[in-house]
Amino acid sequence: MICLICARSGSKGLPNKNIKKIDGKTLLAITIQLAKEVKEIKKVIVSTDSKTYARIAKNEGATVPFIRPKFLALDHTNEWDVWKHAIKHTEKILNFEDVIVLPVVSPLRTKNDIIKIIKEYKKNKKKAVVTITESSNNPFYNMVFLDKNKNIKKLKYKKKLFRRQEAPKFFDVRTVGYMLHKNTIKQKKNIFDCNLSYIKIPKARALDIDDKYDFMISKILYEKTKKEKTINFKNKYILITGSAGFIGSSLASHFFNQGANLILTDKIKKPEKLKKILNKNKVNYIYCDLNSISSIKNLQKIIIKSVPRLDVIIHNASSTGDDNIKGWADNFKNQLTEHWDKVFQVSLKANFEINKSFVKLLKKSKNPSIINIASIYGFMAPDWKIYKGDNIKNPAGYGVSKAGLIYMTKWLAKILGPKIRVNSISPGGLIRNQSNRFIKKYVEKVPLSRMANEQDVVNSVIFLASDMSNYITGQNIVVDGGISL
Ligand SMILES: NC(=O)c1ccc[n+]([C@@H]2O[C@H](COP(=O)([O-])OP(=O)(O)OC[C@H]3O[C@@H](n4cnc5c(N)ncnc54)[C@H](O)[C@@H]3O)[C@@H](O)[C@H]2O)c1
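Above: the input record for the complex with nicotinamide-adenine-dinucleotide. Below: its predicted structure, written as tokens.
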């Protein structure tokens, strides 16, 4: 099966319509790219009279077997003749039977629309397929015509119509796509000369671009749909460690509201901060102490058994400076490195093991993303002046573990590419219940004049978890208001 895309250069209504850009891509490129996503389509053929269009088409991976003669690229040229010409010339270089024609002026069609057209074609023993949309106007109800004497007239229906619903339904034939056999194109005179079958397409995806207003509406709808698709976590499987903490619970609540399937874990048996979403459909809370090998194994087992794939893993659990253990967040001389093993176990070793065991599940996702929550103290040393007079601590083992995490992010990004992306986020200090004195001293150092909050971290996680960051891996995104500059 081939896909035929016809794009002439001299459109009058909207000059150079076929190479006008939506979301940074020409309409021609949008159509070729979509056609190339459909596995049934073996070759995308572009028929154009323009060398510029031909170059754009080839750059997108389409085949341009000929430059269309000018007489087939005029305002009054019959599109059917253009198809005939394209078939004749493509037959010289390719063996094919079936043709799906995708006009460039219908950028809101989806891959699924094309697949439906192909299915309908196969199901109906190769009748030609057209796409139709219910018309908002009806010749028997809300349309009029002017007769010979320029009098306004309404078409009469056999019975009196009081409501629009009583009139027979009318449909507009749209340019979402046509599918037919090459011999049908050769033998018939136009599409209505064929034995027809149809696919109904909702109005929102069936707009043909004819003038500048159609173009403006298509642009708005295209960009809106793309945005919705790019940052869409509905039904995504997202694992969050340390989910019972401040940042973890904020992440959980955001992704819960977005309709994701959540696998939440923490070493807290009754996670207060998750109260609102626990026991809700789509939320699975699994107790796990990342310091215990058997607890990690149990987590791995449950997840492998219960989810079909993993789209995002957020490694957020960590020992922090607030942990009240003797010899941890203490003065330099009293800091005990024996605590470091546990800290490294949670931040690094558990993280590594979890990733290892879930590679298969991650690879089942369309765009899997691993996100490590590190810290600015993974790459910069604390300024002790701001801590003076406060009981806030910044133990060496914390920063060392985060530095290791930033390194491990790069290591994993290289080994897990091209399928799985791995990035880290390094937040600056979050505002909690620190003293005013500490906050004032901290904020004086921040170009954006405030401490971070949970939403700042959530926003950067959304970016890294979504398709917006498709070309980003191995990076450490610093979310610190500029304090580390
Ligand atoms: N708060 C900040 O200012 C700040 C700044 C930069 C980075 N971070 C990082 O953000 C992440 C979240 O921090 P937070 O501020 O929400 O702290 P938090 O203490 O509220 O959350 C950390 C969570 O990790 C869990 N955890 C710790 N050890 C665990 C273990 N052995 N097994 C399972 N779970 C364990 C805790 O129970 C807790 O729920 C951490 O990685 C932290 O290092 C925080």
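Notes for the reader.
Residues 242, 244-248, 266-268, 288-291, 316-320, 346, 373, 375, 427, 429-430 surround nicotinamide-adenine-dinucleotide (CB under 6 Å).
The first strand starts at residue 2 and ends at 6.
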